[in-house]
């Protein structure tokens, strides 16, 4: 490997490693367990996990069909729709939260009918947290899956259909296994984004322990009064994320590019 | 990054001081400095101020820059608890203006202040509601109604602590739907119609104009918010900082604060 390239790469690794080292260095190891088992911390952790998993699930259910539409169907304005659906990736999360207010809030375009007809409002509820997280996380899945679908050789789908398989069977047994690494990668990215979501959550869903106070919110607020607790909670989040990323890596992210013929 | 900013501030302060020493007056009583004459302090001035001071301090900053044309004032408005935490971590602030005494105490306990804090204004808490008060909220006890969507500041934030004290004085228990990170978020949620009511400052209700209405809290249960101000120990522009503190306490500064609804200290 050429030396300049190596140096740049090492600098990049250091860039990512240093904040983590800084946290570990300042962590109050003697009182760490007390902070970790604190009621509020456990509640925030449980809420974060539940909401991020829901957000990931919703992202898959709605994101995969959308990715299919964007990859396989030619229609006028497709580029515009693609930009629209991935807008929240570049939108500042707080802006996303404010925008969600105007759509789904109590006085929002759709939200006002939810309130009027079903007496149901999204802000200040756990459902609101899931909505905010899905809004920011889904584009990651859409982009990953659409790219994979585009790269698929359509002839395998065609072969399956000519052999008499239904569209659903083809999708389930031919297409889906072929995009499995991309789908898994997209789901993990979406989950990680949802877990770390702060701006849209605190703006749209609010902050209340047990209902809407997820881990990032808890860390942010405790930073003002008890920085040591904030450090411990932050390290916990990092540890969980690390575990998922390292654990899933080999099993799902593909060893090189697997071709469709290896799918069962 | 921080070192670079401090170096920049320090060198600008140095330039400012050199410029001042070559000028006529020192930057003492700004209230008596005649307008039109280039005098007073110079350099960059960073003021960390409570969110509720946003409108008033921006105007004071403009007036200060008219009096001291060589100075440039920049503000960082956020919850007092967040600001004092940032200063504790080394943020380059010259002046800290807090919305309560306990957050200022965090600064003085850590010996991060260069001057004794001086209370420059007071404020009263008010219940903020939608314009016209459609739900007819009359007093603090009404906020205990579980059907109401009430938002408060988090307890770490001054207005949250004041609200808790008010509820204790009134003997009511209010369960909010959200604990916001600063008072402006409370105001925004009420203005947007997402929340029915919140506890904010009288100045915030005034600043919201037609977008919100306020319900007074009786004096016997209300708390008076005291706003102290101090120059920080490691202020890059100590001279400018002291000039700003003096300016806020002087007549022009007090007039601007009064115009925004603040009460005298």
What do you see in this structure?
The complex is a heterodimer of chains A (264) and B (265). With 264 residues, chain A is mostly helical. Chain A is 77% helix and 0% strand. Chain A has 14 helices and no strands. In chain A, 35% of the residues are buried. In chain B, strands 1, 2, 3, 4, 5, 6, 7, 8 and 9 form a nine-stranded mixed sheet that branches. Chain B is α/β, with parallel strands linked by helices and 265 residues long. In chain B, helix 2 (54-67) packs antiparallel against helix 9. Chain B has helices at 2-22, 54-67, 80-88, 101-109, 158-170, 183-191, 202-208, 238-249, 251-259; strands at residues 43-50, 71-78, 95-97, 118-129, 150-153, 178-180, 197-201, 213-215, 224-231. Chain B folds into two domains: 2-122 and 226-259, Periplasmic binding protein-like II (D-Maltodextrin-Binding Protein, domain 2), CATH 3.40.190; 123-224, Periplasmic binding protein-like II (D-Maltodextrin-Binding Protein, domain 2), CATH 3.40.190. Chain B has nine helices and nine strands. Chain A binds chain B through residues 101, 105-107, 121, 123-124, 202-203, 206-209, 212-213, 220-221, 223-225, 227, and chain B through 79, 81-82, 85, 149, 151, 154, 156, 176-181, 185, 189, 192-194.
* Separation of the first and last Cα atoms of chain A: 38 Å
Identify the CATH architecture of the largest domain in chain B: 3-Layer(aba) Sandwich
List the uncertain runs of chain B.
18-37
Look up the CATH topology of chain A. Answer: MetI-like fold
Using the coordinates above, name the CATH class of chain A.
Mainly Alpha
**Helix/strand/pairing category of chain B:** alpha/beta
Residues in helices of chain A, as a percent range: over 70%
CATH superfamily descriptor of chain A: MetI-like
Biggest sheet architecture of chain B:
9 strands, mixed
- Looking at CATH, the homologous superfamily of the largest domain in chain B is Periplasmic binding protein-like II
Supply the number of structural domains of chain B. Answer: 2
Largest interface: A-B, 21 and 19 residues
